[in-house]
Amino acid sequence: MSNLSPGPRETDPAAGRLPYAVFGALAGLLVCAACSGFIYGPNGILAVGSWGGLHVVLILEDSGGTLEYDCAHGTIESGWTLTDDGAFSGVGEHVTEHGGPVQESEVLPTRPAAYQGTIDGDRMQLTVTLTDSAQVVGSFDLRRGADGQIVRCL
């Protein structure tokens, strides 16, 4: 007489799913690792997130960023870079605002801008330059997670 007892897949419906669960978890980790080049620099420097400082707030994501500063705002396009020594670089737009309400048909002046600086731990130094005139809008010191201190145009 032979011992023909059923195998684990025949008695436990979850037994066959384990390899799929492990495969799914590994696939998820690989996707996260592939995307981390946008979030972290080569030396593990974290760039994305909320940054704030005197007269500035920056929200940086892998898809780009937005800035709010005194009497102006700006955007950083996707494709910004962060080197292994913490050098940050991106391009986008700078929009000058004014006091009082913005009229419905009013178009605020939008200019091309370069955003360059360095990240060291939880600190960022950022310089905004208008690329069509080489005019420096300003240099800012920011901290990750800090609230920005913006003075609105009145």
Q: What is the subunit organization of this protein?
A: single chain
Low-confidence stretches: 25-38
- The number of helices is 2
Q: What class would the helix/strand composition place it in?
A: alpha+beta
> What is the global morphology?
globular
Overview of this structure, please?
This protein has two helices and nine strands; from the N terminus they run ααβββββββββ. It is of the alpha+beta class and 154 residues long. It has one domain (1-154). An eight-stranded antiparallel β-barrel has the order 1-2-3-4-6-7-8-9. The termini are far apart.
What is the structure about, briefly put?
This protein has 154 residues and is an alpha+beta fold. The protein has two helices and nine strands; from the N terminus they run ααβββββββββ. It has one domain (1-154).
Q: Which SSEs are present, and which pair or pack?
A:
Layout: H1 8-11, H2 18-39, E1 49-53, E2 56-61, E3 64-69, E4 72-76, E5 81-82, E6 87-96, E7 110-120, E8 123-130, E9 135-144
Antiparallel strand pairs: 1-2, 1-9, 2-3, 3-4, 4-6, 5-6, 6-7, 7-8, 8-9
List keywords for this structure.
154 residues, alpha+beta, eight-stranded antiparallel barrel, globular
